[in-house]
Amino acid sequence: MPRATLRCFAGCPGDFPLTQAIYRCPRCNGLLDVVHDLDALGHTRPDAWRAIFDSRYKRTVWPFGSGVWGKKEWVIPEVPDDAIVSLDEGGTNLFWAERLGRELGMRDLWIKMCGNSHTGSFKDLGMTVLVSVVRWAMRDHGLSVRAIACASTGDTSASLAAYGATAGIPVVVLLPRGKVSTAQLVQPLANGALVLALDTDFDGCMAIVQQLAEAGLVYLANSMNALRLEGQKTVAIEVVQQFDWEVPDWIILPSGNLGNASALYKGFAMLKALGLTFKLPRLVVAQAERANPLVRAVRAGATTVTPMKAEPTVANAIQIGAPVSAPRAMMALAAMNGLAIDATEDEIADAAARADLTGTYCDPHTGVALAALFKLRAQGAIGENERVVVISTASGLKFTEFKVGYHERALAGIESRRANAPVVLPPTLGPVVDAIRARWP
After folding, report:
1. pLDDT reported for residue 402
2. Over pLDDT 90: what percentage of the chain?
3. Peptide linkage before 327 cis (omega within 30 of 0)
4. 303-329 burial, b if ≥16 CB within 10 A, otherwise e?
5. pLDDT digits (tens, 9 = 90+) for 13-42
6. pLDDT of amino acid 1
7. Residue 426, Cβ neighbours under 10 Å: how many?
8. CA-to-CA dists, residue 409 to 368, 370, 401, 403, 418, angstroms
9. Domains of the chain, first to last
10. Which region, left, alpha or beta, applies to residue 202 given φ > 0 means left and ψ of -120 to 50 means alpha?
11. Which three-class secondary structure string do you get for the chain?
12. What does the alpha-carbon distance between residue 264 and residue 293 come to, in Å, rounded to a whole number?
């Protein structure tokens, strides 16, 4: 059976079992990475892997119908099937944005709708792996866990709470008070998590949850934990699978803590290393201008990301100034000939509204990625015949306050040029007819 292990991202010697509660290298305090036995995986031919993955995709045989666990050998091969905690994550719509693409002079624009998941975000892809490994480690390897904990801007907490409740494992979430949407807040409350609302931002919550993990009080579930990335990398594999095993030219990703950039690179790199594909797409990491430490580093020609004080942004889930996975993301950008682009608040809101008018219902973070796309297309960096995939990380239904505020022209600093407020009329036929004719003379 193929095996996977934890190893220092910076190259320090030594391996650690996946079932150990360890998040950083004990030698250099750097990040860890899940490393797979590619030689063992390479004993299966590329066409056989394609056939295996296609035969499982969206089927009902446990646990392979999941978009993550259908690639189990490439994710966590050793976890027993009966330890897996799955909510049928993955297998999400690769939406052909034909009308929006036509407006942009593009023929091949797609939006990967990762928010079409159990808790409404891509976080489910990583959380199924992390909670499954914790359950396996508790049951078979003597791991003692009081609770699994995370700092969150909303989506991570919702996902962890749902998977923890499914597994019967206690969950603690630390949220920045007043900085998450109502929909995001109510999810962990409903699933029974201990929700701690702190008077700080995400970075402040992250500092505290790391201290709790270091003290052994909780098991850490943030994307510092390399297990999360193993599930999230399946987005890359699934996109290629949905294109009949062809690699797109561009991937555009909104990012805050930067783990997803590394995860996508891992997925595309694994496909190439095992001979299923022959190239990597170009990666665009998109950030809000008010929380853009990676963009600043790239513009400065720096090799490391310097933390900043993130300012409030409508893309609140990526309002992160000290991204934990910055070293991973820098490596991903270099390997994928990538770009880092930011967007103003008005650009974010306008991009989401523009896409909505062609049939989507975008969360503000997808608006960040779309704003980056619009800029690159206007500059001619992306050609009309290139295949582009924008990663939509969450459901727009989780951000009702943002949507309502936009259409009521109530968002500070945002023009809302595409606002579409309700027209209030008396209950008589004439004014209704007049309103219809006024809209479409």
Report:
1. 95
2. 94
3. no
4. eebeebebeebbbbbbbbbbbbbbbbb
5. 999 999 999 999 999 999 999 999 999 999
6. 80
7. 8
8. 19, 21, 12, 10, 10
9. 94-120+229-407 (3.40.50.1100)
10. alpha
11. CCCEEEEECCCCCCEECCCCCCCECCCCCCEEEEEECHHHHCCCCHHHHHHHHHHHCCCCCCCCCCCCHHHHHHHCCCCCHHHCCCCCCCCCCEEECHHHHHHCCCCCEEEEECCCCCCCECHHHHHHHHHHHHHHHHHHCCCCCCCEEEECCCHHHHHHHHHHHHHCCCEEEEEECCCCCHHHHHHHHHCCCEEEEECCCHHHHHHHHHHHHHCCCCEECCCCCHHHHHHHCHHHHHHHHHCCCCCCCEEEEECCCCHHHHHHHHHHHHHHHCCCCCCCCEEEEEEEHHHCHHHHHHHCCCCCCCCCCCCCCCCHHHCCCCCCCHHHHHHHHHHCCCEEEEECHHHHHHHHHHHHCCCCCECHHHHHHHHHHHHHHHHCCCCCCCCEEEEECEEHHHCHHHHHHHHCCCCCCCCCCCCCCCCCCCCCHHHHHHHHHHHCC
12. 19
Cβ partners under 8 Å of residue 369, min gap 6: 252, 253, 254, 284, 286, 390, 391, 392
Which tokens hold the place of 430? Answer: 């004439």
Neighbours of 195 (CB within 10 A): 19
Whether residue 199 is predicted with pLDDT greater than 90 in this model: the reply is: yes
Distance CA 291, CA 81 (A): 40
Per-residue pLDDT for 142 more than 90? yes
Task: State the pLDDT confidence band at 185, using cuts at 50, 70 and 90.
Answer: confident
Residue 247 has pLDDT above 90, yes or no: yes
Give CA 152 to chain center in angstroms.
13
Give dist(CA 31, CA 77) in Å, integer: 22
